[in-house]
C-alpha cells in the first residue's frame, strides 16, 4: 500500500471539521485511505453498496446517535442523499455537547448533485478533500515511464504486465460508462459517451471547442456541454482555465481540456505499451497532461492553476498563482535538451513571474538563462509541495 500524501491533510482536517467529504473517482484508493485513518482512532465503517450496511441506516438518526463518540466512515454516500439532513442535526447535537469535529468521513465519486446537497445542508460543517490517482511523489517512480504509461490508479499501476494494466483500464472505462455514470446523471447511451470521451482524448491539451465536439458527435452544443460537465464532476476530465488579467493583450478565453489520468488517456486511444505511445501523435500532449496532473496533485488547493496564451503567440503551459500574489510560470517539454521558445519569453515579459521553470524528463536541474531553470518533474513536485505545506 502506498502512503498517500493526502493522509496528513485528512488527519489534520479531522481535528477541525465535523464532516469531511473525500471525493475521487472509483478505484482511486479512497476506501484504503479511510480505513488507514480508522486504524488510529475509534471508527465504524459503512459501505452503502452493502445491503447489510444500508439496512443499518434504515433509521439513520437512531443508529448514528449511538456512535457520536466515533468517526463514522460512510462509503458510496451518494447512494443515500437523504442522509445529509440527518447528519446536520447530529452534528449540531454533538457541537452542543462539546464535540464539534471528526464525526463523519463521507466517501464518494464527485458529482454536482452530491456537492450541492452536502453544501446546502451541511454549510459550515463540512470540508472537501480530493484524492486523485497516485503521483510521482507517492510512487517514487524512477524512471517515470510506468506511471506515465499506466496512470496512477493503484491496480493499473501495480499490474503484473502492461497488457494486464491495459485490460484493467479498459474494464474500468466500460464499468464507468455502463454502471457508474448513469447513477450521476440522466441516462446517456454508453457508446455515445465513449465516443465523446475518446474525442476528448484525441483533443488532449487542446482548447475546448464545444460546438465542434457537438458537430462531430451529432448532438447539440448544450448536450455536449453536459457531457463535459459530467466527466469533470467525476474528476475524470480537467478544464484548465485561462489566465485573465489586464495586461493590454488579446488573451485566449477558452479553457484547455485534459483527460486527467494518463493511463485512461492511453486506454481510450488503445495504446498498450510505451512504443505505441511514443509513436502516436498524442505523445507530447499526453506528457503535458501527465506533468500537469502531478504538479497540481502536489500543490493541492494552496494555489490556483491557469494557462496563459495571447493571440500573438505568447504562452505559458501552467501558471500557478499563490495566495501571496506570486506567480510561477511552468513550461512542459518532452525533450532531454529542452529549449525555451519565444512565446514563453514573451509571456514572462507580460506577467513577470517570480519563478520560471521548464519541466523535462531528465534527471538533473540546470539553468537555461534568463532566470529559467530546467528541472525534473519529481524535483519540481517536491518544491511545490514544500511551498504549499
Notes on the protein architecture:
It is built from 18 helices and 13 strands. The model has no long low-confidence stretch (mean pLDDT 90). It has helices at 6-14, 30-38, 51-56, 60-65, 83-96, 112-121, 136-139, 145-150, 154-157, 162-184, 190-202, 210-217, 221-233, 262-268, 274-278, 283-299, 342-351, 377-388, and strands spanning 19-23, 43-47, 71-75, 104-108, 126-130, 237-240, 256-259, 304-309, 315-321, 327-332, 355-360, 366-369, 372-376. The strands form three sheets. The protein has a six-stranded mixed beta sheet. It has a five-stranded parallel beta sheet with strand order 2-3-4-1-5, sandwiched between helices. It has a two-stranded antiparallel sheet with strand order 6-7. The two termini are 23 Å apart. The protein is an alpha/beta fold and 389 residues long.
The portion of residues forming beta strands comes to: 15-25%
Number of helices: 18
Radius of gyration: 22 Å
Report the sheet with the most strands, covering strand number, pairing sense and barrel closure: 6 strands, mixed
Report the uncertain regions: none
Our measurement of the CA-to-CA distance between the termini, rounded to an integer number of angstroms, reads 23 Å
List the domain count as a whole number: 2
Whole-number average pLDDT? 90
Number of β-strand runs? 13
Give the overall form. globular
What's the helical proportion of residues? Answer: 40-55%
Amino acid at each position: 500500500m502506498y502512503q498517500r500524501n493526502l493522509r496528513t491533510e485528512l488527519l489534520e482536517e479531522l481535528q477541525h471539521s465535523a464532516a469531511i467529504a473525500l471525493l475521487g473517482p472509483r478505484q482511486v484508493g479512497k476506501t484504503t485511505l479511510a480505513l488507514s485513518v480508522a486504524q488510529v482512532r475509534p471508527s465504524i465503517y459503512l459501505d452503502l453498496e452493502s445491503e447489510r450496511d444500508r439496512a443499518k441506516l434504515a433509521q439513520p438518526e437512531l443508529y448514528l446517535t449511538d456512535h457520536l463518540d466515533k468517526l463514522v466512515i460512510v462509503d458510496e454516500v451518494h447512494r443515500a442523499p437523504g442522509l445529509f439532513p440527518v447528519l446536520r442535526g447530529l452534528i449540531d447535537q454533538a457541537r452542543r455537547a462539546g464535540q464539534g469535529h471528526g464525526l463523519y468521513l463521507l466517501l464518494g465519486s464527485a458529482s454536482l448533485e452530491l456537492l450541492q446537497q452536502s453544501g446546502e445542508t451541511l454549510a459550515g460543517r463540512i470540508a472537501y478533500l480530493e484524492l486523485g490517482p497516485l503521483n510521482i511523489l507517492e510512487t517514487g517512480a524512477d524512471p517515470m515511464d510506468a506511471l506515465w504509461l499506466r496512470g496512477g490508479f493503484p491496480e493499473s499501476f501495480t499490474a503484473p504486465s502492461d497488457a494486464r494494466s491495459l485490460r484493467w483500464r479498459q474494464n474500468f472505462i466500460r464499468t464507468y460508462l455502463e454502471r457508474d455514470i448513469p447513477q450521476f446523471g440522466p441516462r446517456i447511451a454508453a457508446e455515445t459517451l465513449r465516443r465523446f470521451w475518446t474525442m476528448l482524448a484525441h483533443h488532449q491539451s487542446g482548447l475546448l471547442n464545444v460546438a465542434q465536439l457537438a458537430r462531430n458527435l451529432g448532438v447539440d452544443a448544450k448536450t455536449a456541454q453536459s457531457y463535459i460537465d459530467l466527466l469533470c464532476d467525476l474528476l475524470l476530465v480537467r478544464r484548465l482555465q485561462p489566465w485573465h488579467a489586464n495586461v493590454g493583450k488579446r488573451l485566449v478565453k477558452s479553457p484547455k481540456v485534459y483527460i486527467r489520468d494518463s493511463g485512461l488517456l492511453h486506454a481510450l486511444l488503445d495504446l498498450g505499451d510505451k512504443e505505441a505511445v511514443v509513436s502516436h501523435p498524442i505523445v507530447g500532449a499526453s506528457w503535458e497532461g501527465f506533468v500537469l496532473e502531478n504538479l497540481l496533485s502536489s500543490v493541492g488547493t494552496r494555489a490556483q492553476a491557469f494557462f496563459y496564451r495571447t493571440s500573438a503567440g505568447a504562452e505559458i503551459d501552467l501558471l500557478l498563482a499563490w495566495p501571496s500574489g506570486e506567480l510561477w510560470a511552468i513550461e512542459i517539454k518532452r525533450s532531454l535538451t529542452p529549449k525555451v521558445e519565444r512565446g514563453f519569453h514573451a509571456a514572462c515579459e507580460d506577467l513577470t513571474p517570480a519563478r520560471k521553470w521548464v519541466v523535462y524528463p531528465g534527471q538533473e536541474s540546470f539553468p537555461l538563462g534568463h532566470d529559467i531553470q530546467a528541472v525534473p518533474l519529481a524535483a519540481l513536485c517536491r518544491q511545490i509541495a514544500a511551498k504549499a505545506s
